[in-house]
Write a structure and sequence with these properties.
Layout: E1 9-13, H1 19-28, E2 32-37, E3 53-57, H2 63-70, E4 75-78, H3 89-97, E5 102-104, H4 115-118, H5 124-139, E6 144-149, E7 152-153, H6 154-160, E8 165-166, E9 171-175, E10 182-185, H7 187-199, E11 207-210, E12 214-216, H8 218-228, E13 234-238, H9 240-253, H10 259-272, H11 285-288, H12 295-303
Parallel strand pairs: 1-2, 1-4, 2-3, 4-5, 5-6, 6-11, 7-10, 9-13
Antiparallel strand pairs: 8-9, 10-12
Helix pairs in contact: 1-7, 2-3, 3-5, 9-10
């Protein structure tokens, strides 16, 4: 299928919290979507049945299985979760062999091109994937990639307390004072960016693109929450540099049970630490059709989880 075609068949791997809005946005834009699943009986809740949706059961460890499923597709979007993000090599290789034109890896987060963020162990699998796709693109001119850097997920982060703020319990861990500005994007905003990439293949070819819907602080989230739900809040302070150093010690100690907490602390460094590039200076919002949220829309995101 020509890259100039307005409607393309796209395969989506990993239809979870992010994958679902990506699929819906692609369908709304007129694309046909193949959902890659581990089981032939799997049907994803929330995805309408119709001629533009197909399911393909695959073995994510088998290039041959993936290649068969990807034949005839223009693009692949990987929204595989953190635990699977390091296992994208067979999917990448299969996409090349199947003649796919554009691959979007499961990047979707902090700016891992930033040298300080790049050095954090939590991003090891993503860095390895970046190196892989750059190498593959250099050897295969008909194949290309776009990596989406969107900061923390705004709505998902607020809902699950990932941004250090628990709206239900009225508690917060304020990292480095709670005034650090960081870029953030809703899941639907990320999905818009993905659609925009397929609408602008040449402008987005073989590079990272940055988008955000708002730049915010922890304290601003809390201020909005207090306006909507007056309550007493409880705070504790945290220093990301201290947490990062403690987390490196955890990795050295080999205490397996403490590693998940250490990884969360590394993520906190990337979002609220000094010099990690978490507030984007330049973005591709206009190119990809991702508008900024106004104050009322930011409040609406927070309000739905109070």
């Amino acid at each position: 299928m020509s890259s100039t075609s307005s409607s393309k068949r796209i395969a989506v791997a990993g239809v979870g919290s992010l994958g679902l809005p990506v699929v819906l946005a692609l369908l709304e834009a007129g694309h046909a979507v193949t959902i890659l699943t581990r089981s032939a009986s799997t049907k994803k809740e929330g995805i309408p049945a119709g001629a533009n949706v197909e399911y393909a059961a695959v073995d994510y460890t088998s290039v041959e299985s993936l290649k068969k499923a990807l034949e005839g597709h223009y693009g692949v979007v990987s929204t595989l979760t953190t635990t699977s993000v390091g296992a994208q090599a067979p999917l990448i290789e299969a996409s090349v062999q199947a003649g796919v034109s554009r691959f979007i890896p499961s990047e979707f987060g902090s700016d891992t091109t930033n040298p300080k963020a790049k050095a954090l162990p939590v991003y090891g699998a993503k860095i390895a994937t970046q190196e892989k796709i750059e190498e593959v693109a250099a050897k295969n001119p008909g194949w290309s990639y776009t990596a989406v850097i969107n900061g923390a997920f705004f709505d998902w982060g607020v809902k699950f307390g990932f941004l250090g703020v628990d709206l239900k319990k009225h508690t917060a861990t304020l990292y480095n004072g709670g005034d650090r500005r960081f870029s953030t994007t809703t899941l639907a905003g990320v999905a818009k960016a993905v659609v925009g990439i397929f609408s602008h293949p040449e402008e987005t070819k073989n590079r990272e693109i940055r988008v955000h819907e708002t730049v915010i602080t922890q304290k601003k989230i809390i201020d909005i929450a207090k306006r909507l739900d007056p309550a007493e809040w409880t705070y504790k302070a945290a220093d990301t540099e201290e947490l990062k150093n403690q987390s490196f010690e955890v990795l050295k100690s080999g205490k397996v049970e403490e590693i998940p907490g250490a990884m969360i602390n590394f993520l906190a460094s990337a979002i609220w630490g000094e010099g990690y590039g978490s507030e984007f200076v330049e973005t591709e919002n206009d190119l990809l059709g991702v508008p900024l949220l106004d104050e009322a829309e930011v409040e609406k995101v927070i309000a739905q989880y109070i």
